[in-house]
Write a structure and sequence with these properties.
Largest interface: A-B, 36 and 44 residues
Largest sheet of chain A: 3 strands, antiparallel
Mean pLDDT of chain A: 87
Shape of chain B: globular
Low-confidence stretches of chain B: none
Strand order of the largest sheet of chain A: 3-5-4
Number of strands of chain B: 13
Number of helices of chain A: 32
Strand content of chain B: 25-35%
Strand content of chain A: under 5%
Structural class of chain B: alpha/beta
Largest sheet of chain B: 6 strands, mixed
Order of helices and strands of chain B: EEEHEEHHHEHEHEEEHEEHEH
Helix content of chain A: 55-70%
Shape of chain A: globular
Number of helices of chain B: 9
Oligomer: heterodimer
Radius of gyration of chain A: 31 Å
Chain lengths: ~850, ~290
């Protein structure tokens, strides 16, 4: 058995699998570290800015209490609050100056002082919404740990110290992405043997099938171990070698589980992540072996494995009831388990993962190997075009046709398309369900709001009003009488406004029910204005303070007006449109509030046109490009495998350049055709089972600072904002996206085909292409953002190009769909020309 | 000149595989390339067809460089079965060649009939036996009616019936004017189609016309051994050895009819007779196995 395991490891080593793993982990860590290093100079600014919301809140409270104190309106409690706030302000200023002067070692002590004075303030009945109890407990727990272990504040956003860098990289490498990476790289351990018939060599040795599979399982486990060890080593080594930080394994990491806040050391945190990752790895790799015994082809094995694992992951993620260790896919939710279950549950998870893995392996051992196909083809196939030949059509066209026929005969394309269609249909039902739920929730919310106002708020105000009026009759003091008059007037206005709100909402609901959208949008406008605090004093207590959300507010108002003017059917939920300019506090509370707000306002719709919007919004097109890359991007490398079919092609009267061109044209045509089909299918599915959608539905387009501040700017600018915006009809937006999609897909296929002229095997081509594409995108937007408009990689983020988000981010108005189309098209043509010339030169040489 | 090779050199690292090789193939000539495994036969054929680069030397096929893809309108290269697409049918391969080479459906079917591959062309290659793949490769190779047919181990994996069929096909093609360069380990089959052999030894070529080594080996079972031996010795026939009542002889000059007549004169009855042609095998043994 040991010899078998060693043999398996030798094969993994010889096929460079371990090398690929090492290369990817190294590249990832080097990139992360380099990027963090570029952000190090801004650490002080960032930490300082993080305290800004606290300072603003403290100042506001101090001002309010100060005014009341001056007017002698404060009781004992108010006075105590006022004193505590002064203390808070002083401590916070100390903390900020410690940060500003880079005295990170003493910063925790000042933070401790601030938190204590904050607690004092809260204890005397003060309210401090910037840090709710979770945020406060989090800060207290972390601060206590820092003080206890005498630790200095570090940059946790872009960490450079070994302990924080390891924690940061482990979020990716010990997450679901790490599991998928391992499945992709090690995925053919069994199927390759079956494909290449070496399986028979093994089976005709005096060893049992169980021994073979168990040895492969053990080899996979050892590879998993190597992966984890190397991730830890490189994660510590890079910052140690290139940075000035020590490894502090007891640096705190705070876990928030519901109401509980627990501080643990980095060592503890990383070991918990590793334990969970071991569990997920055990399950994923056992599942891979199980699928490998059912499917002979590596392509099908990988596709089915990843599809099932990811589907299970997302399904589990969306249904809380099945988030238990009994569910095999729950183990893949590595980024959520700790925060949802706490550290105590990790061992239970590991135990269940071992059991699941054992069950899968036993099933693998007990099943006879099958040559499963996703779609069963007979081995006898009719010839294309009744067997007629077309010599007159030219060699290039003949090569293109041959490549197309190969695609059809291989069967992978049919499998991929079938899977894609299944995903789209599943996605449609998910969207439809979400749309219905959000629509119902929104309308129910309106009804509840009306009930709440009518049954609770108005009676309360009326009761108070009656009280004030009764008090007024007995009041002798002039000042008191004046105060009571103000209260009465305010309450009457409030009641009047509440009644108006009820009437507007009720009219809106009726309008919605009768598909008369104008009253519906009128109630939305009313509510937006109300939330923005645009009404006078009496209703301030039901309005929201929208600091940092002015852009969103301005956009939402204009968008609602656009919808009303054009009588467009509403899309739910919420009254607001989320934007890239929204500012949320970087605190845990801020994150929770942001997620909550996004949940309330993120529009979901299953109509034909809006489904396509989601297709780009959720980056589904990128997943498909990667999938089709495996199908269409192997180029020349697919001819150089064990079957050296390249020799067959090279001994025909076709030049290498024609072969290259033929492959490129075929993959470009097919990928364009497939995407056209996919887009049409999504559209038709929505159009038939839901509704067509509105061509003129407004899609927010961000305008850059330069555009917005230009004299001839014609877009909208929200109050107190520098950035402008305008709307483009959904249909136009989708057309721009479609053109970018075609060109982006063609560009990626051309690049893969181009690389296949050098890379010997398909794995190398795929890896190289993905590295270049990801590296190109990151490089374009991070390092050469001034020239990002020239880079074709920038335009792979189709949605952000078409809605101007990227252009606004870099104040580079040239990043738009038109320049993108040219950049992608020209880049593809240049790569084709280079490949063509390379093949020409090869022949001449 | 069909093929003209001058001063060809090829090394893999420090190992010299082909050392200054020069040879020609004239029109309508069948030339066999013989050498032990790993002697560089496939390397030589791959260089001739432009699949591999030589380190030095010059190759002309019909006065054209092998790097010119148009040369494959005049020549064909039958390689090993690793060049076939497992997931395509045999007909898919032929249809592509037909498209590229300008052949009609009828020509494809005729070529397939001639080789004997027609009845399984619509099956996927992954379902073919080794012999079926060889048939398909040969069909692909002859589809463009090449003037020079280069074949790497064409008889690999063929049963006796197929071997005879392919041998006859090669002889027919030769009659039609096709030149053939083939590598093979089957020396007795080579002897049946050509006497022009290129022995590849230690990277060098030894070009031989082995017709002078061609002789027949007979095993004759006779009624009277002593009389038979006497008669044969008188004729000048070389007796290899005697095994029971079977006399093993080899002859280069005498026909079997002469031997029959002489034995009949001596009242010797022939009970059984079998024949084997000896030629390249003896020469091969001399070149490659002597001294081992």
């Amino acid at each position: 058995m040991i010899k078998l395991i060693l043999f398996e490891l030798k094969k993994l080593f010889k096929t460079k699998k371990l090398l690929y793993i090492i290369a990817i982990i190294t590249l990832f860590n080097v990139y992360q570290y380099t990027y963090h290093a570029t952000q190090a100079d801004e650490m002080v600014d960032r930490l300082y800015e993080d305290t800004e919301p606290l300072m603003s809140a403290v100042n506001r409270i101090e001002r309010d209490l100060g005014e009341k104190r001056a007017n002698q309106q404060l009781g004992d409690m108010g006075l105590a609050q006022s004193d505590a706030v002064k203390e808070m302000k002083s401590d916070l200023q100390d903390l900020r100056s410690a940060i500003y002067s880079e005295e990170f070692g003493v910063a925790p002590k000042f933070e401790q002082a601030f938190l204590h004075s904050l607690q004092d303030y809260l204890n005397v009945g003060g309210e401090f919404t910037v840090l709710n109890w979770v945020g406060l407990d989090y800060a207290l727990e972390k601060n206590a740990w820092m003080i206890e272990h005498d630790l200095a504040v570090e940059d946790e956003t872009y960490p450079l110290s070994p302990h924080l860098f390891l924690t940061d990289s482990s979020e990716w490498l010990f997450g679901i992405s790490g599991v998928i990476l391992l499945v992709l790289i090690l995925g053919n351990i069994l199927s390759a043997e079956r494909e290449q018939h070496t399986w028979f060599t093994l089976k005709t040795q005096p060893i049992t099938k169980s021994h073979i599979i168990l040895s492969k399982y053990m080899a996979l486990m050892l590879s998993l171990l190597c992966y984890m060890l190397y991730t830890i080593i490189i994660g510590i080594l890079i910052p140690l070698v290139f940075g000035d930080f020590e490894l502090i394994l007891n640096y705190p990491h705070v876990l928030v589980k519901g109401d509980e806040v627990v501080g643990i050391s980095t060592l503890h945190y990383v070991s918990l992540k590793i334990s969970l990752f071991v569990g997920a790895g055990l399950i994923a790799l056992s599942f891979l072996l199980f699928i490998s015994i059912l499917f002979k082809s590596t392509f099908n094995t990988l596709m089915v494995s990843i599809f099932v694992l990811l589907s299970g992951y997302f399904l589990t993620d969306s249904i809380p009831a099945i988030q238990t260790p009994l569910n095999i896919f729950q183990h893949l939710r590595l980024d959520k388990i700790l925060s949802e279950t706490g550290s105590d549950a990790v061992w239970t998870y590991l135990l269940f993962a071992v059991v699941w893995s054992a069950v899968l392996i036993i099933m693998t051992l007990s099943l006879p190997e099958k040559s499963g196909r996703l779609i069963q083809f007979t081995t006898v196939r009719k010839s294309f075009h009744s067997g007629q030949t077309h010599p007159t059509k030219g060699r290039l066209w003949n090569v293109v046709v041959f490549e197309w026929r190969k695609l059809l005969r291989k069967g992978h394309m049919i499998n991929v398309l079938t899977f894609t269609l299944i995903v789209i249909v599943g996605g449609y039902f998910f969207l439809h369900h979400a749309e219905t739920k959000k629509e119902t929730t929104y309308i129910d919310g309106l009804n509840q709001e009306v009930n709440g106002i009518q049954r609770e708020l108005i009676p309360i105000f009326e009761e108070s009003l009656a009280g004030y009026k009764a008090e007024l009759e007995h009041a002798d003091d002039d000042i008191y009488q004046e105060e009571l008059h103000d209260y009465i007037e305010g309450h009457e206005e409030a009641i009047h406004l509440y009644q108006k709100q009820v009437a507007v909402i009720q009219k809106g609901i009726k309008g919605y029910e009768s598909e008369n959208w104008k009253p519906f949008y009128e109630q939305q406008l009313f509510r937006i204005k109300l939330f923005n605090g645009e009404f006078d004093e009496p209703l301030n207590h039901i309005g929201h303070s929208f600091t940092g959300m002015e852009f969103q507010s301005g956009v939402s108002l204009k968008k609602t007006k656009w919808l009303m003017e054009r009588d467009i059917q509403p899309i739910f939920p919420g009254d607001y449109t989320l934007t890239i300019h929204d500012e949320w506090p970087g605190t845990p509370q801020g994150e929770i509030a942001r997620a909550d707000w996004e949940g309330q306002n993120h529009k979901v719709n299953a109509s034909g046109l809006y489904s396509l919007f989601h297709f780009y919004e959720y980056y589904i097109y990128l997943a498909l490009i990667v999938l089709f890359l495996f199908l269409l991007g192997t180029g020349m490398s697919s001819e150089r495998g064990k079957q050296s079919t390249i020799h067959f092609l090279r001994t025909q009267p076709i030049s290498g350049s024609t072969l290259f061109l033929g492959k490129v044209i075929c993959s470009a045509l097919v990928v364009t055709g497939i995407f056209l089909g996919v887009v049409l299918f999504i559209f038709l599915l929505g159009a038939i089972f839901n509704r067509l959608g509105d061509w003129n539905y407004p899609i927010l387009h961000y305008d850059t600072l330069s555009e917005s501040t230009a004299v001839d700017y014609t877009g909208f600018i929200a109050d107190d904002q520098s950035y402008g915006f305008h709307f483009i009809p959904l249909g136009n937006y989708l057309l721009q996206c479609l053109i970018l999609l075609f060109l982006a897909a063609v560009f990626v296929m051309v690049m893969a085909n181009f690389l296949s002229l050098w890379a010997k095997n398909t794995t190398a081509v795929m890896t190289l292409t993905l590295i270049i594409v990801i590296g190109g995108y990151v490089g374009s937007i991070e390092y050469i953002s001034e020239w990002a408009y020239l880079s074709p990689f920038t335009y792979l983020d189709i949605m952000k190009v078409a809605n101007g988000a990227l252009a606004t981010q870099f104040d580079q108005s040239l990043i738009n769909s038109y320049v993108g189309s040219v950049s992608l098209g020209v880049s593809a043509l240049v790569l084709i020309a280079l490949g063509y010339v390379k093949e020409k030169m090869k022949r001449k040489a | 000149m069909v093929l003209h090779v001058t001063g060809l050199n090829k090394s893999y690292g420090k190992e010299k595989v082909l050392d200054n090789l020069s040879f020609n193939i004239k029109e309508n000539q069948i030339v066999a390339l013989v050498g032990p495994n790993g002697s560089g036969k496939t390397t030589l054929l791959n260089i001739i067809t432009g699949l591999l680069e030589a380190d030095a030397g010059d190759i002309k096929l019909f006065n054209m460089s092998p790097k010119n893809p148009d040369i494959f309108k005049q020549i064909s290269y039958m390689q090993d079965n690793s060049v076939l697409y497992d997931y395509l049918t045999g007909y898919d391969h032929l249809q592509f060649i037909g498209d590229i080479q300008g052949c009609t459906k009828q020509q494809i079917l005729t070529a397939a009939e001639r080789v004997g591959s027609a009845h399984y062309l619509n099956k996927k290659v992954s379902k073919y036996s080794l012999g079926m793949k060889q048939h398909l490769l040969l069909t692909m190779a002859i589809l463009n009616n090449p003037k020079l047919l280069i074949m790497d181990e064409p008889l690999n994996g063929l049963d006796p019936t197929s071997t005879i069929r392919i041998r006859n096909l090669l002889l027919d093609l030769h009659k039609e004017g096709t030149s053939i360069l083939l590598s093979s380990h089957n020396l007795s089959e080579i002897d049946r189609v050509t006497s022009h052999i290129l022995f590849l030894k230690n990277g060098r070529l030894i070009e031989e016309d082995i017709s002078k080594y061609l002789h027949a080996l007979y095993m004759i079972q006779v009624s009277h051994v002593k009389e038979a031996v006497e008669a044969l010795e008188n004729m000048g026939v070389h007796i290899d050895h005697i095994e029971g009542n079977t006399v093993h002889i080899s002859t280069h000059d005498h026909s079997i009819q002469d031997i029959f007549l002489k034995l009949a004169e001596k009242q010797v009855d022939i009970l059984d007779i079998s024949k084997k042609i000896a030629g390249s095998e003896e020469r091969y043994q001399t070149l490659f196995t002597e001294g081992i």
